[in-house]
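Troubleshooting: if your tokenizer reports a length mismatch, compare your output against this known-good record of 252 residues.
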Amino acid sequence: MPALKVSDIAAERLAALDAGTAQSSHLTECLAVDFARLAGAAFPWLGRDVLDRVAAWRTLGISRRMAEMGRLLDHALPEDAKAAVALHPSDTVRGWACFMVAARPGLDVAGRLAALRPLADDPHFGVREWVWMAVRPHLAAELDRAVDLLAPWTAEPSERLRRFASEALRPRGVWCAHIRALRQDPSPGLRLLEPLRADPSRYVQDSVANWLNDAAKDHPDWVRQVCGRWADESPGPETRHIVKRATRSLRR
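Known-good structure output:
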């Protein structure tokens, strides 16, 4: 099936996305949202000069635009209005909330994770991606502290929070900067991966496997050793799936 293009999205559907009355159903819709129109609909009191600035960002990549919107809203919104952004019907606006928290001065890593926790457990797939991308630079800057804080998340009842614990600190990741320290030495990540090596959720399993696949590009022998040990110690179907997916680059 060919990939969807923005031109494939009906005009009525685009209008609803831009008005903030609909949520995106796939990546193409996420990328199609007009930030200036959506910002004007969600925050009608924003001045024309601010919305013109947002419109000028349309040539930037999507991650950069999300980060710019977070900084803008954290600066422009009164404090008593900020909490409502994370509850907006639009998944894109809730994504902006992720980057608002990332942009907020004065928060330590624990404070940022606490503020972002509800968004990490958001029902929408897009918000759950934006939240780890938004906070990842702060986690990478205090890696040991971040691992300490995320370790309890691996035991959360919510598969979304367990997946966040793994996904947020992937050594390479997608649409994000690599974490140099974990590319040099992936072993600190085991505190997050070990509790998830037989996780019942395929959503979590795939994240753990992708973490190890990232590491395999720099440390193939280390990944082989981890996966071999897991296969011996946890010979169930969940671990077999993780090991098979984690070593896919090593089999090429």
